[in-house]
């Protein structure tokens, strides 16, 4: 329920007659924000595609997740010109099929982004907290399997919502066709309310818990004395920065919309009544949606500029050949893994040295 520009627009017809609408600001807001998101999102994600396919020769499970994240963002970005046209003209002339596709891609992008960001967070947790035991799990093959599972899960929620419901309606005069904002109270009660429960649980609440828990455990691991070694503090700061940026993007983009969606669903199913509640939810929704849409601009920034390995692949492509023996995942880890390996090698060398001198 990422999109619909507006699952908000039709708050039950009975309520509409009693409660004055106060969300007329949404159309200029959407047209402005979505235009900006289209330009920035298209440029950054196309650059990301180029980096992954042409410049970045060293690939592993982390880049697999990021590549799928980029694809999810681009699918959404390509629908934005149609939406901007609709928001400006308040008329959808492109037919029901494109409306259904746009609705589905909205949902696909939001919850696909959430799940792929969660995959990256879990992968970083395994690499830092369990660097040795996770080697058998953290493979490119398993990452591809996970990505296929994520796409199947996301599409199982987005396609029914987009294609099984009527996505376009005509206004009372017949001069305009609406898209995204015509779900009836009956549709909400019979289908959409159940879908909200599913996507909020599987697509938001569980990933939120995983992101927070993984980040906390990574930070606890970085605080251990044995992780301190030559260069360790610097690497800790880099990982700390990555975690903070990751959580900020996740919470900033997705929490406002998903929390508001719960209340909106309660309003549409008449579980919550009252003009004040409706007014608050209706006012917050457009702003929360615009913030959520911005995730496709933040995703590339987070992972392409906080990853030192990717930065080096851009700045010093001629030197990449000398670093192929260092796994990309180790660059995204803290110094924990390398420090442990260095300590083990040092200990082993000392033991053998003592044995040879006996």
TrEMBL record:
Organism: Oryzias javanicus
Annotated InterPro entries: GPCR_Rhodpsn, GPCR_Rhodpsn_7TM
Pfam family, one: 7tm_1
Transmembrane segments: 33-53, 65-86, 106-126, 146-165, 195-219, 239-264, 284-306
An MF annotation (GO) of this entry: lysophosphatidic acid receptor activity
Keyword annotations from UniProtKB, A to Z: Adaptive immunity, Disulfide bond, G-protein coupled receptor, Glycoprotein, Immunity, Membrane, Receptor, Transducer, Transmembrane, Transmembrane helix
Superkingdom classification of source: Eukaryota
Protein name: G-protein coupled receptors family 1 profile domain-containing protein
Domain G-protein coupled receptors family 1 profile: 44-303
Record lineage: Eukaryota, Metazoa, Chordata, Craniata, Vertebrata
Keyword Membrane: yes
CC terms in the record's Gene Ontology section: plasma membrane
Gene Ontology BP term (one): positive regulation of Rho protein signal transduction
Localization per Swiss-Prot or TrEMBL: Membrane
């Amino acid at each position: 329920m990422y999109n619909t520009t507006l699952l908000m627009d039709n708050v039950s017809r009975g309520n509409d007659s009693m409660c004055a609408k106060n969300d007329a600001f949404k159309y200029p807001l959407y047209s402005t924000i979505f235009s900006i998101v289209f330009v920035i999102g298209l440029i950054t994600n196309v650059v990301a595609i180029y980096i992954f396919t042409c410049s970045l020769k060293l690939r592993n499970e982390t880049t697999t997740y990021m590549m799928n994240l980029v694809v999810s963002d681009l699918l959404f970005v390509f629908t934005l010109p149609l939406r901007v046209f609709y928001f400006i003209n308040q008329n959808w002339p492109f037919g029901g099929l494109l409306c259904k596709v746009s609705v589905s891609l909205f949902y696909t992008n939001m919850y696909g982004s959430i799940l792929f960001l969660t995959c990256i967070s879990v992968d970083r947790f395994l690499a830092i907290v369990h660097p040795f035991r996770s080697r058998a799990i953290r493979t490119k093959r398993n990452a591809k399997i996970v990505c296929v599972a994520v796409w199947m899960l996301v599409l199982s929620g987005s396609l029914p919502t987009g294609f099984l419901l009527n996505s376009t309606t005509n206004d009372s005069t017949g001069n305009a066709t609406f898209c995204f904002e015509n779900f009836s109270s009956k549709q909400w009660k019979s289908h959409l309310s159940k879908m909200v429960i599913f996507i909020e649980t599987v697509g938001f609440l569980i990933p939120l818990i995983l992101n927070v828990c993984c980040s906390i455990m990574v930070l606890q691991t970085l605080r251990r004395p044995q992780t301190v070694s030559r260069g360790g503090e610097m690497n800790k700061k880099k990982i700390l920065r990555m975690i903070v940026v990751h959580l900020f993007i996740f919470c900033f983009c997705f929490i406002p919309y998903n929390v508001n969606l719960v209340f909106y669903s309660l309003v549409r199913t008449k579980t919550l009544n009252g003009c004040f509640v409706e007014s608050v939810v209706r006012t917050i929704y457009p702003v929360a949606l615009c913030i959520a849409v911005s995730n496709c601009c933040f995703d590339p920034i987070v992972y392409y500029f906080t990853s030192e390995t990717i930065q080096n692949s851009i700045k010093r492509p001629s030197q990449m050949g000398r670093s192929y023996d260092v796994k990309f995942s180790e660059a995204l880890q803290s110094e924990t893994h390398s420090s442990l390996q260095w300590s083990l090698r040092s200990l082993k060398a000392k033991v053998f040295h003592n044995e040879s001198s006996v």
